[in-house]
Amino acid sequence: MKHIAVFVLALAACTHNQKLASPADLHGEEVTIEVTTAPGVEVEGRVMRGPYGYVVQTYNYGPVDIGQIKRIEQEKTWVGALEGLGLGVLIGGATGAVLGYADGDDECMNDHCWFALDAGGKAMIGGVVLGALGGIIGLAAGAMRGSHYVYEF
After folding, report:
1. Of 45, 110, 140, 150, whose CB neighbour count within 10 A is largest?
2. What is the pLDDT at residue 10?
3. Cβ-proximal residues to 63 (8 Å cutoff; 6+ apart), any chain
């Protein structure tokens, strides 16, 4: 069970690398930045409009001009939760469907069947049950890990 949780957590760790069209796209957002004048130093702050353009107002480093930033990282918890939900439903549903179908048809003894399912019915029930369980686990794992956006300059 522990291995399954690690696997789902690893799948939910989505990172998106993209070019930043404009600093205005991140206005007011909470970000982590790496400053070019101090390589390897990462500070947290909020993107704000300054008198001469956009700056990142940091909590312990002072304002940093957008031109001095090498990389901006941003974490979005709700996006990670939705990605985890989608992956969990997909993986759980597929696993449940395969396991249900592999179990095969039920056979009746003495022609007295009170309740019997064929392989397709078991696949559907397994897909729904394990898909829902996978979605719940993926939602929690994705929310804990978040979705990371990396903007390179």
Report:
1. 45
2. 55
3. 48, 50, 55, 56, 57
